[in-house]
């Protein structure tokens, strides 16, 4: 089943909405579900230069412009720490191998 919003990715989040005794089912991919969650509570943060949002970056796998690194700094730091265990680049060669 495809995502209701982007219609590209496979839906992994399934929401049932109850309204006046009726219900509808909504299916979203992870990125669109995150964007939906953020947009319900507060306005979705977008880059002032290129207009991209964090869920769009996560879906595309790349930034829209250099300003995005500043706008989404907190998310970038959390992601680097999650994937690499650090936010500091250590280089390719371990220190003990230097001559």
How is this structure best described in words?
It is a single chain. A hairpin with a 2-residue loop joins strand 1 and strand 2 (22-28). With 99 residues, the chain is α+β, with helices and mostly antiparallel strands. The model has no long low-confidence stretch (mean pLDDT 79). It folds into two domains: 1-43, no CATH class; 45-89, no CATH class. 35% of the residues lie in helices and 14% in strands.
In short:
By secondary structure, the protein is of the alpha+beta class. 35% of the residues lie in helices and 14% in strands.
Percent of residues in helices:
25-40%
Structural class: alpha+beta
Rounded mean pLDDT is 79
| Whole-number tally of structural domains | 2
Low-pLDDT runs: none
- What would you report as the Rg, rounded to the nearest angstrom? 18 Å
Number of helices: 4
User: How big a fraction of the residues is strand?
Assistant: 5-15%
Largest sheet: 2 strands, antiparallel
Shape: elongated
Number of strands: 2
SSE order in H/E notation? Answer: EEHHHH
How far apart the termini lie comes to 56 Å
List the strand order in the largest sheet: 1-2
Give me the secondary-structure topology.
Layout: E1 13-19, E2 22-28, H1 30-41, H2 54-60, H3 68-71, H4 73-84
Antiparallel strand pairs: 1-2
Helix pairs in contact: 1-2
Based on the model shown, name its key terms.
2 strands; alpha+beta; 99 residues
């Amino acid at each position: 089943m495809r995502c209701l919003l982007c219609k590209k990715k496979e839906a992994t989040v399934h929401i049932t909405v109850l309204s006046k005794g009726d219900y509808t089912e909504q299916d979203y991919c992870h990125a669109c579900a995150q964007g939906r969650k953020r947009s319900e509570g507060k306005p979705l943060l977008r880059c002032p230069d290129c207009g991209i949002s964090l869920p769009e970056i996560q879906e595309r796998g790349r930034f829209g412009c250099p300003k995005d690194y500043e706008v989404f700094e907190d998310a970038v730091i959390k992601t680097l720490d999650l994937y690499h265990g650090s936010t500091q680049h250590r280089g390719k060669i371990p220190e003990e191998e230097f001559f």
